[in-house]
Amino acid sequence: MNKPPIDFYFDFSSPYSYITSEWIEALAARHGRTVRWHAVLLGVTFQAAELKPPVAHPIKRDYVLRDFARSARFEGLPYTQPEVFPIPTQNAARVFWWLNENDPGRAVAWARACLRAYFARGVNLSDPEALKALAAEFGLEPDHAEAVWNEPAWKERLKRANESAVAAGMFGAPYVIVDGEPFWGNDRKAQIERWLSQGPF
Amino acid sequence: MNKPPIDFYFDFSSPYSYITSEWIEALAARHGRTVRWHAVLLGVTFQAAELKPPVAHPIKRDYVLRDFARSARFEGLPYTQPEVFPIPTQNAARVFWWLNENDPGRAVAWARACLRAYFARGVNLSDPEALKALAAEFGLEPDHAEAVWNEPAWKERLKRANESAVAAGMFGAPYVIVDGEPFWGNDRKAQIERWLSQGPF
């Protein structure tokens, strides 16, 4: 019997989501699991939980900017704090859901390409021209990508994803669900690993 | 040459501080370090950073209550969610600073006794009678403990500790500083361990 997939909710503007996106597939595979990726808007989940982004708080802001980069180095990943941060990510997310409809693997590849572009190369995913250029680099027809993110059907699909995330208890990113158990944050990696290897604890 | 001590800032009402308090001395000792404990009021640091306790947020509340207990189990520690939570902890903290004046080791023992009493046995540290009983159990004269927490000098000492914590960048608990590098949260254990064993990364 196949083990149930892991649900991985992320936002394209979340540094900790970027870090998690780089280890979650390998971790899942080591334990015979697959991963279902869910691109969502973190702002919607913040609003539901009456939260603000960590960089919107004095004192905490300085800490998290330091911790983003350090947590990436801890995982051996390149990281450059984007100058424009955080950014609205609905366009990248709508392209994700469009690709996901026919080929979830291709959607995952797009998610990784976007996260790496933003957090390692500073590509501003909220700038339509930059996102079109990234789409072209990825092998999509840029005008078609733009048509997708302006299409009501994909706006609606993202909206449903956001609602599902809130319904699943998401209030921060990344948010990972394994066998119904929620894990918030890149720093829950060790707990997720124990759950996958030994079951509930 | 001795390596500089690790600074460990905590609040008696913080579950993640309790968990960290149970591993930090052993971790430090393995790397030839000592630990300076700082009892502070998390509420003061929340205010400075314009934050509220995690349980004050809808959705996030449910998650953290689950995560407190799971994170304790992950470290093999007993944990029972206190019915009254969070609580004001200035009395326990003032006794900590009073003990610390003459015997930091005894202050650490008091901190551990309080954290274990609250998080493993549900002893409400904000109830003067319960705290006096705990003081007696610990070997203090209960009326003297009460006199200490009502004494302006120890109120002032705690105030200074809170101000130092904010000045050091604290906005949440536990907050650990190693060689000037700040680590927030029980979940930064692995990063602290790498820092201690390999130096800055």
TrEMBL record, chains A, B:
<dbReference type="InterPro" id="IPR044087">
    <property type="entry name" value="NahD-like"/>
</dbReference>
<dbReference type="Pfam" id="PF01323">
    <property type="entry name" value="DSBA"/>
</dbReference>
<comment type="similarity">
    <text>Belongs to the GST superfamily. NadH family.</text>
</comment>
<dbReference type="InterPro" id="IPR036249">
    <property type="entry name" value="Thioredoxin-like_sf"/>
</dbReference>
<feature type="active site" description="Nucleophile">
    <location>
        <position position="14"/>
    </location>
</feature>
<feature type="domain" description="DSBA-like thioredoxin">
    <location>
        <begin position="6"/>
        <end position="194"/>
    </location>
</feature>
<keyword id="KW-0413">Isomerase</keyword>
<dbReference type="InterPro" id="IPR051924">
    <property type="entry name" value="GST_Kappa/NadH"/>
</dbReference>
<dbReference type="GO" id="GO:0004602">
    <property type="term" value="F:glutathione peroxidase activity"/>
</dbReference>
<dbReference type="GO" id="GO:0018845">
    <property type="term" value="F:2-hydroxychromene-2-carboxylate isomerase activity"/>
</dbReference>
<dbReference type="GO" id="GO:0004364">
    <property type="term" value="F:glutathione transferase activity"/>
</dbReference>
<dbReference type="GO" id="GO:0006749">
    <property type="term" value="P:glutathione metabolic process"/>
</dbReference>
<dbReference type="InterPro" id="IPR001853">
    <property type="entry name" value="DSBA-like_thioredoxin_dom"/>
</dbReference>
<dbReference type="InterPro" id="IPR014440">
    <property type="entry name" value="HCCAis_GSTk"/>
</dbReference>
<protein>
    <recommendedName>
        <fullName>2-hydroxychromene-2-carboxylate isomerase</fullName>
        <ecNumber>5.99.1.4</ecNumber>
    </recommendedName>
</protein>
<dbReference type="GO" id="GO:1901170">
    <property type="term" value="P:naphthalene catabolic process"/>
</dbReference>
